[in-house]
Amino acid sequence: MESNRRAPGWAGPLIGLVSCATALGISLLAAGLVKASAFPVVAVGDAAVDLAPAGVKEFAIRTFGENDKNVLVAGILVVLAAVAAAIGALAVRDVRYGTAGLVAFGVVGALAVLTRPDAALLDVVPTLAGVVVGIVTLRLLAGRAVSAPPGEAVALDRRGLLVGAAGGLALAGVSGVIGVGLSSGHSAVSRARAALKLPRPATPLPPVPAGADLRIKGLSPFVTPNPDFYRVDTALVLPQVDPRDWTLRIHGMVDRPVELTFADLLKRPVVEADVTLCCVSNDVGGPYVGNARWLGVSLAGVLRDAGVRRDADMLLSTSADGWTCGTPVDVVLDGRDALLAFAMNGEALPVVHGFPVRQVVPGLYGYVSATKWVTDIKVTRFDRDEAYWTPRGWAPKGPVKTESRIDLPRDGARLPAGRTVVAGVAWAQHKGIDAVEVRIDRGPWRRARLAEAPTADTWRQWVLDDWDATPGEHTIEVRATDATGYTQTAERAPVGPDGATGWHSVDVRVA
Questions:
Q1: Which of 2, 52, 183, 506 is positioned for an S-S bond with 32, CB 3.0–4.6 A?
Q2: Which 3 state secondary structure label does DSSP give 276?
Q3: Does 6 lie in the same domain as 115?
Q4: How many CB atoms are located within 10 Å of the residue 232 CB?
Q5: Residues 414 and 466 in one domain
């Protein structure tokens, strides 16, 4: 053992980082045995999502897209690393200080876990297990570099410290890998999804008409493939819901409360519908819109069985992870294909899109209609209950606005002179698109050619294929007119509180 030397500056941060890493690894392992959302990093992240102002969330979605959750978790880990280094520095001075720091770390994690909407007392076990192992690791490592009273020497067992740190990191890594495997849900839920035999719809839809897809390279296809379908939700960890355990409770302002199992759902008449979904966070020209062929049962039919009372005007639906959504009752009951969907584009719902069951309601933004992993529907009133986004500044009702987007050419593209294709998609769910117009450099509006649209609930492709592009810089704009006669306004409005407006435009350079 070396003596009469001060502990080097790296010793304290190393001790803290390794101790916190083992705490997180053991927590992740324990969360794999309890449930994934009990991992304290996830719980803190979920709390951060809930507490963040609407503007911060919009910035995250706009800047990072579907990677916003990964960025949040990475940010939490960076902060934890800084705190861990400070805890280690304190532990080298006095191990009691470092221990107190880890206890405080555990208290924050436990509070985040226990305040989640679906929390149970058992959910705190991963945090407690991690803190205990972290404290043991901290004390063992700190014992290799122990501070003496001021002015005296420090004993440093450099080799023992490094070997202990390596062992701690190995423990953290192995525990974390096992925990991730246990939490991934690739076992029961994935097997159940793969084994699900989809029932046939009572009235199968014909194949998508050939004329609905112009098959232009670079143009969004009429049917969005499942892997490409946008995802916007608040779940840091995807809920893993086994259909054998799934139930849907319908209660509140109804004459006959209903509780359905997944088997009960499959016994009902099955409906097939082509529906375009759109997120209210979709800015003008944005990517958060997609079209799919959904398979499910009529939500209106289930509600009629329950007997919705005449003064009810809201469905407060709840996801398996506690997220809530408020949907206007009159919209669901007006005859449109509002579904409790269990399949998407010919396969069982992907977990990321709500397996085993989600809501699909044409004509409404997703935040008021498209609850994934839905497990509860309370029939109520807007003046009595609020859903997740309403107190955060969003409108309680969210009808989709008529919009259009240019897919070709891309903004900033460099094009050869001559005949150039301009193409894109337009949507006005449950109203339908009647016309799309394009103009170049603020010139006259020109009618685009429209693809077929099987129903008014889907988007519609459009193309202008006779633009003779001349050398120079050009601005291309698009606007759509829906079947009610409404033409998109040029006035730009942000996504909040009820959806963006304005004409999409792209700037290109022609050689």
A1: 183
A2: strand
A3: yes
A4: 17
A5: yes
The pair of three-digit structure tokens given for residue 260, joined into one six-digit string:
């359905």
Q: Is residue 230 part of a domain?
A: yes
Pairing label, strands 247-252, 374-380 = parallel
Are residues 15 and 165 in contact, defined by beta-carbon separation less than 8 angstroms? yes
Lowest mean pLDDT among 126-130, 308-312, 358-362: 126-130
Domain hosting 327: range is 220-392
pLDDT in tens, 406-442: 999 999 999 999 999 999 999 999 999 999 999 999 9
Q: Given the structure tokens 């800047």, which residue do they identify? A: 63
Tens of pLDDT along 294-308?
A: 999 999 999 999 999
| Same-domain check for residues 231 and 132 | no
Q: What is the mean pLDDT of residues 49-73?
A: 74
pLDDT, average across residues 391-403: 95
Other Cβ atoms less than 10 A from the Cβ of 351: the count is 19
Local structure of 291: helix, strand or coil = strand
Whether residues 292 and 241 fall in one domain: yes
The CATH number assigned to the domain holding 500 equals 2.60.40.650
**Six token digits for residue 385:** 């209950």
- The pLDDT assigned to 147 comes to 47
Note whether 382 and 427 are same-domain residues: no
Tokens read off for 456: 């008014």
**Cβ–Cβ under 8 Å, residues 66 and 231:** yes
Alpha carbon distance 388, 34 (integer Å) = 26
Residue 7: its pLDDT value, please?
A: 64
pLDDT tens across 2-52, in order?
333 456 778 889 999 999 999 999 998 998 888 888 888 888 887 877 777
pLDDT value for 2: 38
Is residue 208 a part of any domain in this protein? no
193 is a domain residue: no
The answer to whether 118 and 321 have CB atoms below 8 angstroms apart is yes
Domain count across the chain: 3
The DSSP result for 392-427, as a single string, is GT--S--BPPPEEEEEESPTT-EE-SEEEEEEEEEE
Which of these three, 341, 366, 392, is where a domain ends? Answer: 392
Mean pLDDT of the chain: 91
Q: Is residue 337 part of a domain?
A: yes
**CA nearest neighbour of 328 among 234, 400, 274, 248:** 400
> Would you call 335 exposed, middle or buried from its count of C-beta atoms within 10 A (0-12, 13-18, 19+)?
exposed
- Look at residue 155 and give its three-state secondary structure: strand
- 40's enclosing H/E stretch is helix 40-51
What would the mean pLDDT of 101-111 be, rounded to a whole number? 90
Inform me whether the pLDDT recorded for 310 exceeds 50: yes
Q: Where do the DSSP E strands lie in 320-459?
A: 324-328, 339-344, 347-348, 358-360, 374-380, 403-408, 414-415, 418-427, 433-440, 446-447, 449-450
For the question of whether the overall pTM of this predicted structure is more than 0.90, the answer is no
